[in-house]
Amino acid sequence: MVEVTVDPLSRIEGHYRINTEVSEDGVITDAQSNGLVFRGFERSLLHHDPRDAALFTMRICGVCPVCHSITAANALDDLFGVADQVPKNALVMRNVHQAMNFIASHAAHIYVLWGPDLANPAYRDILTQYGDVGNAVWGELSGRFMPLVNLERGTRYPAGSSYVAALREFRRLHEGIALIAGKMPHPVLQHVGGVVYSPTVADIQKLISYVSQTARFVENFTLGVPPETWIENTYRASSPESAVNFVIERLQELLDNSLNNNDFSHASGWGDVPLFAAFGSELVGETLLGLPVSLKLDRSGGYKDPNTIGFLSYGVFFKPENGDGYDPTSPAEDKVIPSGYMNGNLQLEKFDHRKISENITHAFYIDEEADRPPWNGVTNPEDNPDEIDYTRGSESRYSWVKAPNYSGIPCEVGPLARLLVMGEPLVTGLAKTFQENGYSPANNYTRMLARMQEILVVIPELLKWLSQDLEAGGKVAVHTELSMARDSEGMGLWEAPRGALGHWVATDSDSMTTLYQAVVPSTWNLAPRNGQGIPGPAEQALIGTKISAAENALGVDYANPLGILHTARSYDPCLACAIHTIDKTGKNPDRIIRVV
Amino acid sequence: MNNEGLLEKFKNLDFIKMDRRTFIKAVGALGASLFLQTYKSDIAKAFNGLPETKVLWLHGVMDSGCSISMLDGENPDILEFLQLFNLNLLYHEVLMMQQGIFVDGQPANTSDLNSEVLLEEILENERGYVLIAEGAIANGPHGSGKYMVLGGKIYRDVFERAARNASVIVAIGQCATNSGVNAAESEIDDLMDHRGVAFTLEDSSKGIVDLLGIDTPVVNINGCPAHPDWVFLTIGAIALGKIRVPDDLPEVLDRWYRPKVFYPPDHTVHDNCPRRGFYDRGEFETTVGGPKCLWKLGCKGPYSHADCALRHWNGHVNFCPQAGSPCIGCVQPGFPDSTRPFYVEIEDAGIVNTNLDTIAGVAIAGGLIAAGAHALRRTVLRKPEEKEGTTEESALERTGGEK
Fold it and tell me: A179 to chain B: which residues are within 8 Å by CB?
């Protein structure tokens, strides 16, 4: 047994460590997910004006400040009792704001954070064994995904073409966000009762222009076909089977054209998604398309036991056709991407926020109760330096991240969970195809394809909101007074690009905050073991995964643990969110608060 | 003076021979984009003799917002920035191929793939680099620094080694400059003990460099997040020798170590705000969503020293008050405690002991009518005895205002 540790895992948000035990045949047999920083955050909201929360809590995360500010605004709408009156135009503005952040954040994850692992030298060593095809594919992978800072024996290579192009789109979308929200990161649009800015006709036209330009990037780099064609045949396909068939046929067509001349370039139609879709998967690439080699990413990052994992979505994007106001409990029918819980066997249930609890058995917190619901939580951070030790194994306390559960089950959250819950045809079809062929329906391949596909789901909705639903100069807020928050409680449910995000808030008779807590996506995905010893989602996905590239194709190389890197990064970890945590307030025992 | 006028004035100057004062003026006046356009060929020429500057970028306790903000930079963007100023970015957790890899507790592989090996090589061999410090430095619990451990090492110790051998520490963003939201008041802020590089909030005795006895010069680029122009142009000026470290720093920086060109001591966000006309006419919004002055909604623009209203953000398209939100003073050393509550008029909030001198100072640039209006409201609304013990000096301290 060999201990392989990745510390720090770079190309994520924040500071994260993964410790694994690996067998001699190169299979991960145990894993611990360690959040490495104790930050403390919501506690500084206590005894303050609750309206500050929208601007304050976004500073939990510089990558997804938009979703924190919207979730906080949702919680404040509930706290002030105005959720049912928030003007439609404000809800559309929240959608627009969030959608641009979704696309930018996903692009950053796919191209800047996760993608560079495709340029890992292990893939050169594997692919170049397969003659001209392999050489050509390696040339594409390294030429597209090389990160800005890299080294190979003292030489630095230029950053990849797709990497650089994606950064440009990231910037463009953030500029669009700034146009209606002041700046990005830390935009200032969200407010209790609505938003602070009513867009002009010019703003709306400019936003459409930004999004249309990004759609051209998606056409030229990401898909290799017009987004409209892709969307029509996948997101709007008549069935999951036809969506999968469209993609397979498209890949077959590309291959027929390229296997003679070994041209896998963007110019010949091989967008980043087709390239990944064909060469990333053993089942799709080797079995269905007959390729000589693949990266076998569908064999890693899967779940072994469907009974210990679920998929959770709180729902996101208001339906403009519902008019003013919304229901804070986020029933499935209220959102464009609905709320819902799907178990490990892909059976869907209605979402009920009362089934959420959090466990601290394996986290550095002190509490007499190990399990608590988030609206009644306590978080006393360990303050003895000698107790803060990440190396004591799976039985110990080993993270600053708590373990949230839904009905006692750890849940994956994020694009894959959302699109499964939504029944999006392509992702649903792929998951079923893998399930029927003996693979885990959730794996590194489907997790990444779902993130790519979600960009395509969001773009047409965003263009519709901009061109049809958003009214220039329309009313964007209900008037509120601080006194409306007296002795009240509020809950905000929403989705960050990385997954389910909830904020809970309560106030006293002076309308000052007495409780604030956020349960964030990376807390779900990167959780340590729960009270029953069930590993968190990322831990479950690591256990059973092979340590080295393409199922140890070149033998076991503990020193280049791509199995860990791909799997851990596939969740788009955001540690600043996951460990922003805490609260202990011994001085005011009647105002005990906690925070995740 | 408009851009054309400025261009006319500056374009005949020889960039290479331009002294620092003129350089700073030119950058400040023209903005990054025009400046680079104007001097592109000169800058290219300069590079023939310009040595490479190495840059080590470390992330402490933060939310990566400043790294994101740097990726959002335009004219120059981050790639142009590195190229133009001949910078060699050695290490950046978000942008590098490498990660820490240990097999049975020992570092494995080489610096090609292992960031811990890479970092150790940098700390061992490199000297005289620019250290970009993003994020606060964890000192808790109880002085142990164990609230942030990375690669098996206490981050404070890594920071200390990196800082000692740097030629200059450029602290970017409020977490690094003043600990920002990490130091916001709460029952456990002492236990947390997250420190800024040279200050923790407004306390210079609580900067981590003071605690560790590090005398490397510090430049602070405040803001939550920092503006990419502020960072790129400051580091660019250092790389080009236009700001000589440490000789020029006393003149170039204000007392919070911020470059005066971006954080002007003598004027504020308020002075150039597009809503300023409404303020001068006494027209104020009392609910969000309208076009008028945001003073009554808690705007801290009159107390915030930054060029946001001129420079604008993200491709220079907007800034907070223009987008309908009160300025929350995120560049001020005491942020966020000194500017909360965000949505309450500053005089009612009692967070600043606003006095007539301050108000006049603020208002002179725009019009005395406003000063009169303030003075009147102040007399009517405030009961001085409620603010006993709050001196003018402490008010200025809290807002970071300059006399």
Answer: 314, 317-318
| CATH number for position B84 | 3.40.50.700
**Is B84 inside a domain boundary?**
yes
Whole-angstrom distance, CA of residue A340 vs CA of residue A382: 35
- The domains of chain A, with CATH numbers, are 2-361+399-591 (1.10.645.10)
Q: How much is the pLDDT for B350?
A: 58
- On the question of a cis peptide bond just before residue A338, with omega within 30 degrees of 0, the verdict is no
Least Cα separation, residue A98 to chain B (angstroms): 17
Contact call for B342 and A61, based on CB within 8 A? no
DSSP conformational letter for A193: T
Q: What ipTM score was computed for the predicted complex, to two decimals?
A: 0.95
CB distance B92–A159 less than 8 Å?
no
Using the predicted structure, report yes or no on whether residue A163 has a pLDDT greater than 70.
Answer: yes
End position of a domain, from candidates B199, B225, B252: B252
Q: Mean pLDDT throughout B121-126?
A: 98
Question: Which residues fall within 8 angstroms of residue B4, CB to CB, at 6 or more apart?
Answer: none
B233 lies in the same domain as B274: no
CATH number at residue B323: 4.10.480.10
Residues of chain B with C-beta less than 8 angstroms from the C-beta of A196: 288-289, 323-325
Q: What is the pLDDT of residues A130-147, one digit of tens each?
A: 999 999 999 999 999 999
Note whether B63 contacts A59, CB cutoff 8 Å: yes
Residues B288 and B390 in one domain: yes
Task: Note the pLDDT tens digit of each residue in A171-202.
Answer: 999 999 999 999 999 999 999 999 999 999 99
Pick from B186, B328, B335, B346 the residue to mutate for testing the A interface (most A CBs within 10 Å). B186
Q: Which residues of B touch A191 (CB under 8 A)?
A: 288, 325
Q: Cβ B93–A11 below 8 Å, yes or no? A: yes
Q: Quick one: B373 and B292 in the same domain? A: yes
**B130 lies in a domain?**
yes
How many CB atoms neighbour CB A393 within 10 A? 12
Nearest CB to B325; choose among A15, A61, A196? A196
Q: How confident is the model at residue B27 (pLDDT cuts 50, 70, 90)?
A: low
Does residue B288 sit in the same domain as residue B237?
Answer: no
Chosen for mutation from A44, A105, A590, A593 (greatest number of chain B CBs closer than 10 Å) is A44
Q: Which of B89, B95, B157 to mutate to test the interface with A (most CBs of A within 10 A)?
A: B95
Question: Which residue range forms the structural domain that includes residue B93?
Answer: 50-252
Q: Quote the number of domains for chain B.
A: 2
Average pLDDT over residues B227-239: 96
Nearest to B99 among A8, A159, A582 (CB): A8
Asked whether residue B233 falls in the same domain as residue B275, the answer is: no
In a domain, B11, yes or no: no
Beta-strand relationship, A499-507 and A348-349: unpaired
- Considering only alpha carbons, which residue of chain A is nearest residue B339? A52
Query: Which of B63, B95, B328 lies nearest to residue A149, judging by beta carbons?
Result: B95
